[in-house]
Specification:
The complex is a heterotrimer. By secondary structure, chain B is mainly alpha-helical. Chain B is built from ten helices and no strands. Chain C has two domains: 124 residues, D-Maltodextrin-Binding Protein, domain 2 (3-Layer(aba) Sandwich); 88 residues, Periplasmic binding protein-like II (D-Maltodextrin-Binding Protein, domain 2, 3-Layer(aba) Sandwich). In chain C, helix 2 packs across helix 8. The longest helix of chain C has 19 residues. Classes of the chains: A mainly alpha, B mainly alpha, C alpha/beta.
Chain lengths: 225, 276, 282
C-alpha cells in the first residue's frame, strides 16, 4: 500500500488524468461537431455530399490514430509549419485535440447514422410534406430523435475517446497519463506493478460511470414507438 | 436538386484543390520529396518489412484474442456464479484499460521480470496487449451471439437431455461462433490499427519503419502518407471480407450475422428500446 | 457440433504454431545473413540515428557502425559475417543479458549503474551534451542562452530536463521519439535548438538532408564515455576489444572515421578528452 502512496506523493498522477479528461472533453466536442456535419452530409439528398461524407468516414476509420497523431506533428507542424499556439505545451495539446476530434468524428457520424435508422422514414417524409426544406427537416424532426436513439453508441465512442486520449503521447503531449506512466516506469522500475495498477484503476473508475450513465440515459430517452 | 449536387461537388473538389495548392506552395509535391518515399529502396527495406511485422503481430494477436475471447465468453455464460463473476470482472477491467497503457506495462514487465523467458519484449508486449483487449471484446461478442440465438435452440438442447453446459458447448456456441465470425473479422481492423501503438514502444511495425525512413530523408509527410494508404487499403480489404462473410454465413446459423456499425468501439451491453 | 468446436480450437492452435515459426522482420536490413561460413557475430547498433547508427536501405552507416566493423574485423569477423540488430536505448542491458546480441555499439555511455549488470570495453569516444542550431543562428551560444527558446530532445531523455533544471528555466520543451525528428523540426525552423551528445548532433548535421543547414554550437557541458557493451563476465573479449580500439586510434583510422561521419559540419571532437584511453577490463 505504501508504494501507492509513494507514487501519488512523488508524481502528479491526478494531474496526468486531468490532462486526459481535458483532451477527452475538447476532443469529444470537436468530434461531435464534425461528426454531426458528416452525418447530415451522409443523409443529405445530394449525392456528392453523401459521397464526400462516406469517403471521410471510410478513410479516417481505417487509419490508426497513432498515424494521425504522428502525421499532425511530423507532417503538419514540422513540415508544413502550421502552428496552433506559440506555447509548445498548448500547441501539442491542441494538435492532440484535433487528432482525437478528426478521428472520432467518423465514429460519431456512424453512431448518429445508426440513430437516424431508428427514426421511421415517415417522420422525414412528413416533415418534407409540410414544406420543410432538407436542413430544417433534419434539424427539427430527424436529428433530435436520432440523437436519442444514438445515445448508446455515442457513449461507446466517448469511452473509446477517453481511452484513446492516451495516444496523445504520439503527438508529443508528455503530461498525459501514458507519457507520465512511461517516465515513471523508467525512473522507478521497482514500482512497475503499483504504477500500472494506479493508472489502470484510474481508467476503470472513469470509464464505468460513463458506461452506466449512457446506458441509463439511452433507456430513459428511447423514443417509444 | 441537380444544381445543389453540382454546388456540393464543386465545394468538395475545391477543398481538394486548395489542399493541393497549399502543399505545392510549400514545395511538398516535388519529386525530390516523393521519390525517396515511394522508390524501390523504401519498399524493400522499410514498408515491406514493417508491414510484415505489423501483420505478424496482428495475426498472433487475432488467434490469441479468439481463444481468450471464447474462454472468457463461456466463463461469463457459465453455470457457476463464481466463474461468471470472475470472468465479468476480468472482461470489464480489460475493456476499460487503454491498450497503450497495457503495452507500456507489458513491455517493461517482459523486459525485466520475464527477461529470461521472453526474447523480444516489444513484440510480445504488442501481441499480449492486443490479445487481452480484443479477447475481452470477443468475449462480449460470444455472449451476445449466444443471447441473440432463438430461445428454442437452448430449449431443444435441454429437452433432449443435455445439461446446460453441454447445451452451451454443443448447440449454442457453435452457432454463435458462426454468427459472430463477420464481427470478429471486422475486429481485425481494430487489431491492425492498434498494432501501430507498437511504435511507441519501438516495435518495428509499419509506422515506426516509416518514421525511420523519414528520419533519413526529411520527408515525413510523404512517407506517413504512404504508410497511411497501406493501412487504409488493408483495413478496407478486411471490412470487405467481413461483409462478404456476413452474407454467406447468414444461412448457416439461427443467429443474426452482422457487422457492427462501429467496430472500433467495444459494444457495451446493447440496449434495445423497449417495444411498446 | 461438438467436433466442430474442438476443430476450431485445434485450427487456432495450429495457426499459432505456424505463425511462431517465422521470426521478426528487420526493418532496413537485407534479411537473413546465412553465409554458410557458420561464424557470425551479432552487434547491436542504433537504426534511427543518421551519422551514428542508421539503416540506409540494405547498408548500415554511421560512426558506431564503422567502429564496430573495425573492431569485429580485429576479432576475426568479415563485414559479411556481422548481423546488425537494433538496440533501442531502453533495451540495451536486456539484450546483452539474454544474449540477443554479442556486443553493443549504440552511443552507450559507461555508467556505474550499468556496470552492475553489463561489462564495458572502451571508451572509444568521449562525447558531451551540446546544442545543434540553425547554421545562421548567432544568439544561442550555450545552455544558458535558451531562455524563451524552443528546444527539442527525445522522450524520456534526461538531457532536456537538465537544461530546464540547471540553465534556462523558461525553455519551451518538445519531446519526440527520435533525434532525427528533432532535427527535421530544426531545419524547418519550428524549434531553435536540439540537445543531446555532440557526436550525435554532428552525425545528424552531416546527413544529405541537413548538410549546411545546421551547426553544432561546440561548447559541450558534460562528458559521456561511449563504451562497447558486453555481457557480464566477458573479460577476455573486453581485452581484445580494447586492443582493437587502441590500434584503431593509433593507426589513424579513428580520426578518419570521425571525419567521414561528420564531414562538412565543421565539428571537431573535444580535444582534451579525445581520443580516449581505454579503461581496464573488469
Amino acid at each position: 500500500m505504501s508504494e501507492f502512496l509513494d507514487i501519488l506523493k512523488h508524481y502528479d498522477v491526478l494531474g496526468a488524468f486531468w490532462v486526459n479528461i481535458q483532451l477527452t472533453f475538447w476532443g469529444a466536442l470537436l468530434a461531435l461537431v464534425i461528426g454531426t456535419v458528416l452525418a447530415v452530409m451522409r443523409i443529405s439528398p445530394l449525392s456528392s455530399l453523401r459521397w464526400a461524407g462516406a469517403t471521410y468516414v471510410n478513410i479516417v476509420r481505417n487509419t490508426p490514430l497513432t498515424v494521425i497523431m504522428t502525421f499532425l506533428v511530423l507532417a503538419v507542424w514540422t513540415q508544413l509549419k502550421i502552428s496552433l499556439a506559440h506555447d509548445f505545451a498548448l500547441n501539442f495539446f491542441l494538435f492532440a485535440v484535433v487528432g482525437l476530434g478528426v478521428y472520432h468524428a467518423a465514429f460519431v457520424c456512424e453512431a448518429i447514422r445508426s440513430g437516424v435508422n431508428t427514426v421511421p422514414a415517415g417522420q422525414a417524409e412528413a416533415a418534407r410534406a409540410i414544406g420543410l426544406p432538407f436542413l430544417a427537416a433534419a434539424r427539427i424532426v430527424v436529428l433530435p430523435q436520432a440523437f436519442r436513439g444514438a445515445v448508446a453508441p455515442l457513449g461507446n465512442t466517448l469511452i473509446a475517446l477517453l481511452k484513446n486520449s492516451t495516444v496523445a503521447v504520439a503527438a508529443s503531449v508528455a503530461t498525459e497519463s501514458s507519457g507520465a506512466m512511461k517516465t515513471m516506469i523508467e525512473f522507478r522500475p521497482d514500482y512497475l506493478w503499483p504504477i500500472f495498477l494506479t493508472f489502470a484503476v484510474g481508467f476503470v473508475v472513469l470509464v464505468i460511470p460513463i458506461g452506466l450513465a449512457t446506458t441509463g440515459l439511452s433507456r430513459r430517452l428511447a423514443v417509444t414507438r | 436538386m441537380v444544381g445543389g449536387n453540382i454546388v456540393g461537388g464543386i465545394v468538395v473538389a475545391g477543398i481538394a484543390v486548395w489542399v493541393l495548392v497549399v502543399l505545392a506552395g510549400k514545395g511538398q509535391l516535388s519529386p525530390a520529396m516523393w521519390g525517396p518515399a515511394v522508390d524501390a529502396r523504401a519498399w524493400q527495406f522499410y514498408y515491406l518489412p514493417g508491414l510484415e511485422n505489423t501483420l505478424r503481430a496482428a495475426a498472433f494477436a487475432t488467434v490469441g484474442a479468439v481463444v481468450l475471447g471464447i474462454l472468457l465468453g463461456m466463463g461469463r455464460l457459465a453455470h457457476a456464479r463464481a466463474v461468471r463473476w470472475v470472468c465479468s470482472v476480468v472482461v470489464e477491467f480489460l475493456r476499460a484499460v487503454p491498450v497503450l497503457l497495457m503495452m507500456l506495462f507489458l513491455n517493461a514487465f517482459f523486459g525485466t521480470a520475464m527477461k529470461d523467458v521472453v526474447a523480444d519484449s516489444a513484440f510480445t508486449a504488442v501481441v499480449v496487449a492486443l490479445v487481452l483487449y480484443n479477447g475481452s471484446v470477443i468475449a462480449e461478442l460470444v455472449r451476445s451471439g449466444v443471447g441473440n440465438l432463438p430461445r428454442g435452440q437452448a430449449e431443444a438442447g435441454l429437452s433432449v437431455g443435455l445439461t446446460p453446459g453441454q447445451t452451451l458447448r454443443s448447440v449454442q456456441l457453435p452457432q454463435a461462433l458462426i454468427a459472430m465470425l463477420p464481427a470478429v473479422v471486422s475486429q481485425l481492423v481494430v487489431v491492425l490499427k492498434d498494432s501501430a501503438l507498437g511504435q511507441i514502444i519501438s516495435y518495428a511495425e509499419l509506422l515506426r519503419s516509416a518514421q525511420i525512413l523519414a528520419s533519413g530523408g526529411g520527408n515525413p509527410l510523404q512517407v506517413l502518407f504512404v504508410a497511411a494508404v497501406l493501412f487504409i487499403l488493408l483495413n478496407n480489404l478486411l471490412s470487405w471480407v467481413a461483409h462478404r462473410l456476413a452474407r454467406r454465413l447468414s444461412g448457416r446459423t439461427a443467429g443474426r450475422t452482422q457487422v457492427p456499425v462501429t467496430p472500433d468501439v467495444a459494444a457495451r451491453r446493447t440496449v434495445r428500446p423497449a417495444a411498446a | 457440433m461438438r467436433k466442430k468446436l474442438t476443430g476450431l480450437v485445434a485450427l487456432a492452435a495450429t495457426a499459432a504454431l505456424t505463425l511462431s515459426a517465422c521470426s521478426s522482420a528487420s526493418v532496413g536490413s537485407s534479411g537473413g545473413s546465412s553465409d554458410g561460413a557458420g561464424k557470425s557475430i551479432k552487434i547491436g547498433v542504433k537504426f534511427d540515428q543518421p551519422g551514428l547508427g542508421y539503416q540506409d536501405g540494405s547498408k548500415h552507416t554511421g560512426f558506431d557502425v564503422d567502429v564496430a566493423t573495425y573492431v569485429a574485423e580485429k576479432l576475426g569477423y568479415k563485414p559479411s559475417q556481422i548481423t546488425w540488430v537494433e538496440s533501442p536505448s531502453a533495451q540495451r542491458e536486456q539484450m546483452l543479458q539474454n544474449h540477443q546480441v554479442d556486443m553493443i555499439f549504440a552511443t552507450y555511455s559507461i555508467t556505474d549503474a550499468r556496470k552492475q549488470v553489463v561489462d564495458f570495453a572502451g571508451p572509444y569516444f568521449v562525447a558531451g551534451q551540446d546544442l545543434l542550431v540553425a547554421s545562421n543562428n548567432t544568439d544561442i551560444t550555450g545552455p544558458e542562452s535558451l531562455e524563451g527558446k524552443n528546444l527539442c530532445s527525445v522522450t524520456g531523455s534526461t538531457s532536456a530536463q537538465k537544461i530546464k533544471d540547471q540553465y534556462s528555466k523558461g525553455v519551451n520543451l518538445l519531446e519526440r521519439p527520435g533525434y532525427a525528428e528533432c532535427v527535421t523540426a530544426l531545419v524547418a525552423g519550428q524549434v531553435d535548438a536540439v540537445t543531446t551528445d555532440d557526436i550525435i548532433l554532428a552525425g545528424l548535421a552531416a546527413t544529405p538532408a541537413n548538410k549546411g543547414k545546421v551547426k553544432v554550437v561546440g561548447h559541450p557541458f558534460s562528458t559521456e564515455n561511449y563504451g562497447v557493451g558486453l555481457p557480464k563476465g566477458s573479460k577476455a573479449t573486453c581485452e581484445k576489444v580494447n586492443a582493437a580500439i587502441k590500434s584503431m586510434i593509433d593507426d589513424g583510422t579513428w580520426q578518419k572515421l570521425v571525419d567521414k561521419n561528420t564531414a562538412g559540419t565543421g565539428y571537431t571532437p573535444n580535444k582534451q578528452e579525445n581520443p580516449p584511453a581505454q579503461d581496464a577490463c573488469a
